[in-house]
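Exercise 7.
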Amino acid sequence: MTPQQFSKIFWKQYLLLEKDFLETDEFVTIDKSNFKTFSSRYTYLLLNICSEIDSIAEEYCKVLGRKPKNIVAKVRAIVTKTPRIKNERAITKYPYEVIKPAPFQAFDDKVAAEWWRNYNLVKHARAEEPSDSIPNSQLANLKSVLWALAALYILCQNLYKLLGESGLQLEPSRLFE
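Solution. The predicted structure, written as tokens, is:
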């Protein structure tokens, strides 16, 4: 894959998802005090962003010459090649509250991060209402979507760097530095 192909296939998709997310700020301010706010739009975004994360993680692993089967193994392969991703933060820009998600920090060799587990519960068991916690449908909230979008941003930025110098300038993110 060339940087130009990456730009057309993955970065363009990231920018579309980011645009959709930023439109929600008109109704729910991107702020830590709103992290538990859930909605049908957040469900839509979480499902689409995480699907894109799975696709780009798969492509990232192909570039690395690996073929892991699930997201935990994909993240492990990526972190092995690019260890800084584990603690990398996507910092929100002005005019949004400064939030610094580190979406890969909670992944380990066997367990996915909370935002990814929330995605799976929303995807596979949305109607279930565990007696000891909130209904799974409410896990599609501002925090899960923001962490997922941060993960997609970090994967995109790092894969683009891995593909090598091209002189091509990607359109900047409107949300993350």
